[in-house]
């Protein structure tokens, strides 16, 4: 699998270091949460930072961009929204780039913000390697982001037409450590789902031991994420009183907001 190191920032934000393998020097950074000394980070991690991938313009995902630009004026910062600070590589859906000996494909997933981008990363030299996707605040483990700048229809497209169609083994790295709260909600709306119960037990143990719950996989999300299961789950349909995926998505989000 493409090598990913998860770094927790603030209370529950993730920043990621991404490399072709554990021993590689060339690296990408995903979502610079804080102003910090990225030169020190590069030295500590023994990496050469070749690009920054920003999922969206909210400060807790790009608060370090301007400081990074001052420290690394020649390293490109990618993003899909003009509001992303210090961005100099604007991207749109389907754009691809070769970065740090990896292939990065940009997936537009507007809803949480109108310019939200997820990044699907593969190793072009080894097609058997497990791919990874960085989903920011679109797809969380067993959840999704709030609809700040979009609609239920947009989130349904993002989750169930874009991300859901990625290979099942794709490793999912979201922007926050929200897993326990999301799985508790998933258990509420689909109480007899054994996959949800098992993952909730596992996630509880992980957090009690001070470990992260990332990554998930697309396969796991299809089995446990209620926002990706309106069509499949009669229990969820009963809870939201509809089998319409858009109406169901909207009702689930409203329920989660007040859960």
From TrEMBL:
Its cofactor is Zn(2+). InterPro entries: Clx_II_MBL (IPR035680), HAGH_C (IPR032282), Hydroxyacylglutathione_Hdrlase (IPR017782), Metallo-B-lactamas (IPR001279), RibonucZ/Hydroxyglut_hydro (IPR036866). GO terms for biological process: methylglyoxal catabolic process to D-lactate via S-lactoyl-glutathione. It comes from the Eukaryota. The keyword Lipid biosynthesis does not apply. Gene3D superfamilies: Ribonuclease Z/Hydroxyacylglutathione hydrolase-like. It is an enzyme of class 3 (hydrolase). Pathway: Secondary metabolite metabolism; methylglyoxal degradation; (R)-lactate from methylglyoxal: step 2/2. Keywords: Hydrolase, Metal-binding, Zinc. It catalyses: an S-(2-hydroxyacyl)glutathione + H2O = a 2-hydroxy carboxylate + glutathione + H(+). Residues 12-176 form the Metallo-beta-lactamase domain. Its EC number is 3.1.2.6. GO terms for molecular function: hydroxyacylglutathione hydrolase activity; metal ion binding. HAMAP family: Glyoxalase_2. Belongs to the metallo-beta-lactamase superfamily. Glyoxalase II family. PANTHER family: BETA LACTAMASE DOMAIN, TENZING NORGAY, ISOFORM C. This is hydroxyacylglutathione hydrolase. It comes from Caenorhabditis tropicalis.
């Amino acid at each position: 699998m493409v090598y990913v190191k998860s770094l927790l920032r603030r209370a529950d934000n993730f920043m990621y270091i991404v490399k072709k393998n554990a021993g590689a020097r060339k690296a990408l950074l995903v979502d610079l949460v804080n102003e910090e000394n990225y030169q020190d980070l590069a030295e500590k991690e023994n990496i050469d930072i070749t690009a920054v991938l920003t999922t969206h313009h909210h400060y807790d995902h790009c608060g370090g961009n301007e400081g990074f630009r001052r420290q690394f004026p020649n390293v490109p910062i990618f993003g899909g929204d003009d509001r992303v600070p210090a961005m100099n590589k604007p991207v749109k859906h389907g754009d691809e780039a070769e970065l740090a000996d990896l292939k990065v494909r940009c997936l537009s997933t507007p809803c949480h913000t109108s310019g939200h981008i997820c990044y699907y990363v593969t190793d072009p030299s080894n097609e058997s390697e497990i791919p990874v996707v960085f989903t920011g605040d679109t797809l969380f483990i067993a959840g999704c982001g709030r609809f700040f700048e979009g609609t239920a229809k947009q989130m349904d497209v993002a989750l169930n037409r874009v991300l859901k169609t990625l290979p099942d083994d794709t490793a999912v790295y979201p922007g926050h450590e929200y897993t326990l709260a999301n799985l508790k909600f998933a258990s509420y709306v689909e109480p007899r789902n054994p996959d949800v119960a098992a993952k909730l037990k596992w996630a509880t143990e992980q957090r009690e031991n001070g470990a992260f719950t990332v990554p998930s996989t697309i396969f796991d999300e299809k089995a446990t994420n209620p926002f990706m299961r309106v069509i499949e789950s009669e229990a969820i349909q009963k809870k939201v009183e509809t089998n319409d995926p858009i109406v169901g998505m909207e009702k689930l989000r409203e329920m989660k907001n007040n859960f």
